[in-house]
Amino acid sequence: MYQxxxxxxxxxxxIAGLFGRVIGVRLSxxxxxxxxxxxxxxxxxxxFGVLEGGHHDALVVPVADWFQSGALSVAWALRIDTLTNVxxxxxxxxxxxxxxxxxxxxxxxxxxxxxxxxxxxxTFAMLMLVTxxxxxxxxxxxxxxxxxxxxxxxxxFKRPSANAASIKAFVVNRVGDFGFALxxxxxxxxxxxxxxxxxxxxxxxxxxxxxxxxxxxxDVLTTICLLLFIGxxxxxxxxxxxxxxxxxxxxPTPVSALIHAATMVTAGVFMVARCSPLFSLSPVALEVxxxxxxxxxxxAATVGLVQNDIKRVIAYSTCSQLGYMFFALxxxxxxxxxxxxxxxxxxKALLFLGAGSVIHAMSDEQDMRNMGGIWxxxxxxxxxxxxxxxxxxxxxxxxxxxxxDMIIEAxxxxxxxxxxxxxxxxxxxxxxxxxxxWRLIFMTFHGAPRADHHVMDHVHESPxxxxxPLAVLALGAIFAGFAFAPYFIGHEREAFWGASLVLPSVxxxxxxxxxxxxxxxxPTLIGLVGILFAWLFYIRxxxxxxxLAETNWPLYQFLLNKWYFDExxxxxITGPANWLGRVFxxxxxxxxxxxxxxxxxxxxxxxxxxxxxxxxxxxxYHYAFAMLIGVAAxxxxxxxxxxxxx
Amino acid sequence: MPSVLLDQIAPAAPEVLLAVGSLVLLMxxxxxxxxxxxxxxxxxxxxxxxxxxxxxxMPGETRVTFSGMFVTDRFGIxxxxxxxxxxxxxxxxxxxxxxxxxMERFELPVVMTLATVGMLMMISANDLISLYVGLELQSLSLxxxxxxxxxxxxxxxxxxxxxxxxxxxxxxxxxxxxxxxxFTGSTxxxxxxxxxxxxxxxxxIGLVIGIVFLVAGLAFKVSAVPFHMWTPDVYEGAPTxxxxxxxxxxxxxxxxxxxxxxVTPFGAIAGEWQQIIIFVAIASMVLGSVAAILQTNxxxxxxxxxxxxxxxxxxxxxxxxxxxVQGILIYMATYVAVNIGTFAVILSMRGPDGMMERIxxxxxxxxxxxxxxxxxxxxxFSLAGIPPMAGFFAKFYVFAAAIDAHLYAxxxxxxxxxxxxxxxxxxxxxxxxxxxxxxxFEPAPKGFAAVLAVxxxxxxxxxFVASPLVALAATAAKSLIPG
Lengths: 646, 483
Description:
The complex is a heterodimer of chains A (646) and B (483).
Chain A: H1 2-51, E1 59-69, E2 72-80, H2 82-105, H3 112-131, H4 135-153, H5 160-191, H6 196-202, E3 210-213, E4 216-219, H7 220-235, H8 244-247, H9 253-262, H10 267-274, H11 276-279, H12 283-304, H13 310-330, H14 334-361, H15 379-393, H16 399-414, H17 417-445, H18 453-458, H19 464-488, H20 493-497, H21 508-512, H22 517-540, H23 544-551, H24 553-560, H25 565-596, H26 598-615, H27 620-642
Helix pairs in contact in A: 1-2, 1-3, 2-3, 2-9, 2-14, 2-19, 3-4, 4-5, 5-7, 7-10, 7-12, 9-14, 12-13, 12-17, 13-14, 13-16, 13-17, 14-15, 14-16, 14-19, 15-17, 15-19, 16-17, 16-19, 16-22, 17-22, 25-26
Chain B: H1 2-9, H2 13-32, H3 37-57, E1 63-65, E2 70-72, H4 74-100, H5 107-124, H6 128-146, H7 153-184, H8 189-198, H9 205-222, H10 230-237, H11 240-266, H12 270-291, H13 298-319, H14 322-347, E3 350-351, E4 354-355, H15 365-368, H16 370-384, H17 390-404, H18 408-434, H19 448-460, H20 462-480
């Protein structure tokens, strides 16, 4: 069954990718959507098996041997435990819905076969990642999703901005992947294996040992964890390596929903959770994760306040929510982090697909300043966006409420300075989250229409094939928290997670249930305050945001320009790298290598050729002379070598 | 006693057959005049085919006759088959050209047949004397062929140059032979070999100088650098069918003679003459590749190409082992197949104003004559040594032998030279496929298509005939170097 879940999408991708042109659009859609739906149904079935108290130990499904080189032996195998099952459900369900949605969304595109093939390829790679039984296999999936992400961001390859964004995503991810790869090598160097079970079993023995590298001695587990975390930072767009995610919105909206909200960007969270036996042995690494996560949460939320592109607002919101997940991991609340990953997948995919529906209705307009006043025309999409936003803001009884509250309480309960920092940032970010979510709703749907009448006349509700996935996701956004909280973070959690997550020595989730009253109330209250402010700013007194922006002009610019991260990188990294590349290209390759290499050799050969041609004078005595010289030279050589006395 | 005489002659049956047959052809021509040229030519082809049959039908064991001056072995049979095939294809290819260019005289096929007799003699030479006899019979015929178009200044110049330089090289060869005789006391290859195998202190300087002169004479015949200077002028000046003949049959025969005259008598002191061959091979490969680049005449280009290919084949001789000889045999086989085809294309380059010889004339051939362009492209890829064409495997076997013999520098230089050489072969492909057509060629004479097809299929599909050929070459090489 698990082989089917993982390999059905690959089958669809291969058929649609290789033969899409032959079999046509409709058949390509069928061969990708149907396997994906089957895969999703099987995943859900497996997940309910786990809920009923299925296997607690990891089930390993061998597939094939991959390679063996010296002591390094890597096999293809699917590691199935609760964590994998949760991820399988998230990935396949969202992917199946996005597949269905794409049939409608990409109906006007000239290359829907290619799109469907990429989507299925992505899903396969993601499934490979979450079912990996060793680090190398995980790296395979990791790179596979990176590739699919690159292909899909640059799907409209005729747009220069899409190409730039896809390259940026690829290159920034490369920085993280480099860390990940180093981490895997360090794992192999330390443990002599890349197999999860072996490594995790041997990890406690390595506590306090050091790793000698060049001239440094570093704590081995901390080093490994930090290197792995760098990989997670790249993939999950954490502060510093986050710059690619907003630009990735150049891709088609279903891509943003699937890859850049629900699944791929959560790979980092998944990886840290998978390696929780390693991470929980390194307090330093956990502290770093907490601080980075909390900083990302607040940073992305502030930037999200002032963005005008509807997809970018949601992108920064994703970035911010990923920050929540990371600091939840950092304080030891692995279950809470995965729970937020789970609920977030539903409501964020819902928001993105809803935004896609809006964009579709507005004739591909993405700027919220050109929207407004359309809520009566697309009431279904409007209500979906409400549900998504309510869940995102953590309004009680929606999905986000359970997971986000838990994270904030866990951070408080952790008690350390880092935990306190995360707690306060989390509360502040929750306020901002509520604010920008309703800013989005109000700007998009309410007020006076700001689009021209052609567009306004054309505003229409999306077809059923697009609205149906929205409805399914909305169900998830409403009920996923309420229904599954007992398992993920409640009383059933130990039985639920089994051995797939490590239980920290201080059970932070247990303590989170006993925090003071004001701590558990504050996220909800502050969320409502945020919504109120948004109403005040954008419905009650629409002139306020402008005044505020004018009075706080430097701050506004600072936020609008995303804290100047891109400019900083351009100045500190890409600029010098470009310069260096140019030097190597022009001077190094052009002048030195080409000059002395291909061009130089070619010129020398031409010269030689001309000279050889000139030797061929046509005069008989020249020819005879050459023969005599040849004989004389050979004879002299032998006389010299053998010696005259012999 | 007749039976004894027959036993004596049997090993030389093809040569005797061809010698007598060519005299008959000469008589037919003399009595019937030039009008009988086509008849004589086809009779010559039939005669050569018969000789080919006799050669193929020979028993495989090594047999000597004429007091040990003449030897027949598998090595000889292999090379003779190549020579005869080359001659059989060259004669019909010349007919159309001869008619159009006003050189349709019956002597042409007769002299070609006589030259072939000389070549077969060379291949079977087992003594310095019979070596010289065979060589001169072949060379004198070739001098005549080169200037066969008597009213052409270029052709007579080519013939004269070839003759004078050939005489010089013959002198060197004889001088070397006399030194060898003086220092070993014998002219018979096996006797020299046995004497040197018993000796202990290596070769004396006199003997080595004798070998140098012998090699100089032989290198002239295979057109190896620095004894190659005649080649471009003669290739360009001689009538094209004669050039085609030159490029195929005499090359094979001279290479066979080269191998036998070094391996059989001087196998024991291979360390001495290896140096000469290495030098000659490197010089040939490099010059053949480099000098061809700026050529504009395709016959001249093929001359440099042949110099380069002789260099590659000599790499096998430099290895001085069984694998090396095997490599040479394979190399010559593929060389014959590709060159017959290439010259068939060159011979079909006839525009409205007569024969065309410039490389630029091939421009746009892919559009005017796509099949011919395709086949020629295959030949060029093969000459450049690009897999899976025949030429790749030929180079592979000689270089593998050289690596076995630890001649690393030679191999590296050879491979680099072949990279340089690839340039001008690929340039022809580029001109055919990417340049605009200037003139359209007239339809090729009848039968050319068949030649092209056979040659092209062999070149392209070499992998399918490779294993029997390689096995044949291996047994042939073992017959020359036993053990």
